[in-house]
Each structure stands twice: as structure tokens, then as C-alpha cells.
């Protein structure tokens, strides 16, 4: 049996036992007192009939009874102003007033139902031996005090004041303490039985699992230690918990190996680019020392020094972020989430931020209709960003019009994305090494080029994860073309005509 069912059955049983015990006690009390077990309505009437009148009921009754003694016809319609005012005062005290003449009810307060009054109203009793009682009106119980009289025309009349009843205070005043004590004792007994059962079937196995966690933590050989799980003869959920615990430690062992691999890779990354890190740090230290030594003795120099420090810090931050990203890629620690998207719309949205830059002449060639492909939108966006940023970085600003074009081409076998710029270009040797990790063609391109040399390596990794390929061709001092080739999936759309943006 599962834990859920055990708890459910235990609590239902406890509730049922308590309710049954309470019912038996109440029934026994009434049987001893009355010789029978009355129904709920009878019990309520018995409890409320003999209760004392409140001061509001007494005063209201005396006020109307005084009018009856003076002249009972004052309660005939239409009611005089003084009678109407007195009734209104009574009703403001949350009491209800009923005036009866013969079989008709000439007046009854709002909230009362006339049909129910005709059925449940007390009988006439001109001597008023039983003026107090309980009355049912539309399913609601009222405590009443009445005064029966004769109008001058000889017809019977009644004045009834009602108060809504809603509690069993007197009953609980007499028997409540014993019932509470009994319920408490019964609840303690049942809870003890439930706790004992739960401890034996659930809590103790979980405690064994807790003890095992400390044992495993101190053990040198995780695999041998956790072989004891799952234990036998335990509830299903605890068994699953122990199995999950075992699997968790196996995964932790794998994670530890992956972490070690990641650490080794990180050390390699740091070693390979130590000179790239040292340059901006040395520069920052130099400017800081200059400010400390008072070299920057004017506000203009201070601002220039601070601006330089800020730019160097930004470069360092970008470099470190790129390093850790590539490290994760290198260990296949980044999960790709592929979804079928419209490449045409995706590239159009991607290029919107770049098309507003007026210093560059942008050309965007996209097909008229949708081309769908399964990609990870976040990583593919990163790849395109790296390519565009690389083109911007190596534009030849000495040329009259720096240009960058991006084209989406649909062929029979594949989908091609091309980015072409008229920048400084690169040699064949540099093009062959463009996707190597940490490679930068600084010597023959621009001495001020910044970057980690990882941008295009990241592009290559992302595209390969999509089953595609990326290549670069260039002519030095003329142009560079980056080309992404994605193999066409079966059923892909073809023959898209192009529009120039």
C-alpha cells in the first residue's frame, strides 16, 4: 500500500471514529433524559425554548403589550404613527415583529415568509400560558414571545416578537466540557496508533536512508556503498526514494568527472590566452598608478584615464565570458533545444537592430516565402551575431562606403546563409586558420584588433551541432565571405524568389 493511501485511510478512520463516538454519546444522553433519541429539529426546539429572554426582547414585548392593554385596535391597519415608530425601533434591534388577526397576518417584518408563518405560527391561547417557544420560518429557527388578545370586534389577535437563533450555547454549556475531554482523549489515542504505524512502515526506513547518506559521504568507494539500496520489504515510495538516492550519487560521480574535465579545460584556456589577459590588466594597472601618483593632474586627464580603464575592463569581461562559453561548448555541457522556425522571419528580425546603423550600407536578401528549419534559436542567434560582429570589426573604414550583405539562399539540397563584407580581407593562410581556437590574424589585419580568437570557433561549434558546416573565403584588402550551409530536410520548401531590403 502506498504512503498516500495509508495516510488517507488513517485520517478518514480517525475522523469517522471520533464522529461516531460523539454521536453515540449525544444519543445516549438524550435517551437517558427523554427515553428516546429525538431528531435534530426536536433537539433544537428543546434547547432554545426554555432559554431566558434578552433585555431587547423583554423591552420590545412590554412596549407592544402596553399598546394592547391600552387599546388592542391600535394594532389594526393602518397602523398609527406611534405604533409604526415603535415597531421600527424593535426591528432595529435585530428582532422581528408579527401582528396577526384571525387567520391573516396584517403585519410581519421583512425577512419573514407569510406562507411559512401560516403553517408554523403558534396557536391562539387567550390566557397566554405558554408565551415563549421556537418557531420555524422557511427553514430558519426563531425564538419567540407572544401575546394573544381579542380585538374589539371579537376576533382573535396576536402580537409575536421573534429573535433569530443560530447556536447551541446552552447545550454545550452543560455537556461541552465532557465532550471536549472525550474527543481529546480519543484523538490522542488514535494519533498514537497512527504514529506508531507510520513510524514502523515509513519513518524508520527513511531514517535508515538518512544514516546511509552520512555513510556514503564518508565512503571512498561510492559505487560499492550504495549497492545496498533499495532495501527489501519497504513501502513503494520509500523504495523509489532509495533508488533515486542511488541514481543521484551515480550522477554526482559522473558530474565530478565532468567537473574535473572542465577544470582541466579551463586551465588550458587560461594558459593559452595569458598574454591576452595580461595586456589589458597591465594597462589598467598603469593608468591606476598614474592617477595615484598624480600624473592625471587635470579633470580632462582623469576622465580620459577612467574611460580607458573602463574600456579595458569591458574587454576583459567580454573575454572571460567568451572563454567560459567556449569551455562549456568544448565539454558538450550546453544543451541545444531545437524547434521548427521560419528562417526568413528569424533573420529579418535578427537584422533589424543592425539595419539602423547608417555608417554601413546593409543589403539583406531574403526569400519571399517561408523557409523552415529546425534550430536552437538562442545559439543560432549567437552564431549570426559573432559573424556580423566579426565583419564589423574588420571593415575597411578607409573605403568610401563600408558594405555588409546577408543572404538566405534556398537550394535543392541545402539552405545557405552568406555574409559578405568589403573589409580588409585576409590571406589564404589566415582563412584556413580562421576557425582555429584562439587564432587572430592581428599581424596582417589591424594591430588594434580586439577579441579572444574564440568567436568563429564558437560559430563553427554551433553550426556543427545543427548538422551544418561553415566556411570562409576572402581576398586580401577586398572582401570576406562567411557561408553557413545547412543540409535540407526532406520535404523542405524550394524555389523561393528573393527580395532585396
Range of strand content: 15-25%
Mean pLDDT over all positions? 79
Helix content: 40-55%
Which homologous superfamily in CATH is the superfamily of the largest domain? Histidine kinase-like ATPase, C-terminal domain
Sum up the overall morphology in one term.
elongated
- The CATH topology annotation of the largest domain reads as Heat Shock Protein 90
What is the H-and-E element order? HHHHEEHEEEHHHHHEHEEHEEHHEEE
What is the architecture of the largest domain at the second tier of CATH? 2-Layer Sandwich
> What's the β-strand tally?
13
By DSSP (H or I, 4+ residues per run), the number of helices equals: 14
Low-confidence stretches: 443-448, 494-501
Distance between the termini: 68 Å
Number of domains: 4
Strand order of the largest sheet: 11-12-10-9-7-13
EC number: 2.7.13.3
Transmembrane segments: 12-34, 175-195
GO molecular function, one term: phosphorelay sensor kinase activity
Catalytic activity: ATP + protein L-histidine = ADP + protein N-phospho-L-histidine
